[in-house]
Design goal:
6 helices, two-stranded antiparallel sheet
């Protein structure tokens, strides 16, 4: 998709700017993606959906480790979510420390969606890092 922006100046002069856009759904919402050669600035914020999901997963993991819940099914019933959803998102608590650090503190955007990030926990730590950021 391409967007054109026309800027008109006083008089009859104007400039037309071509902006290449890629629109893709991310976390169920349309998102405009930057060009592949775009380098984000240092002040880029983390994805709030990913941060919230990681925090929730760690909270659930602590509650299971503390013995508050014996199974994922009990946890899912207590928090009012589907067992499948809880099971999938709980995997985020088992991501490699380097991946977690870069997602939460490093201000780096993940190259994969939150859904795909949930399945990286089953991979080796080196593979997680490569797939999440390359």
């Amino acid at each position: 998709m391409v967007a054109y922006v026309t800027v008109r100046f006083s008089g009859s002069s104007s400039i037309r700017v071509l902006i290449p856009l890629t629109v893709r759904k991310k976390n169920g919402r349309p998102k405009i993606l930057p060009p592949t050669d775009y380098r984000p600035s240092e002040d880029q914020a983390q994805d709030p959906h990913i941060l919230r999901a990681i925090g929730r997963a760690w909270g659930w993991r602590r509650r299971i480790d503390a013995g508050e819940f014996a199974t994922i099914q009990e946890l899912a019933e207590a928090v009012g979510l589907a067992e499948r959803h809880v099971s999938r998102q709980l995997r985020l608590a088992y991501l490699a420390p380097e991946v977690l650090k870069r997602l939460t503190c490093g201000r780096e955007a993940s190259a994969v969606s939150l859904y795909d990030l949930c399945f990286l926990a089953g991979e080796g730590w080196g593979e997680q890092k490569r797939r999440a950021f390359d």
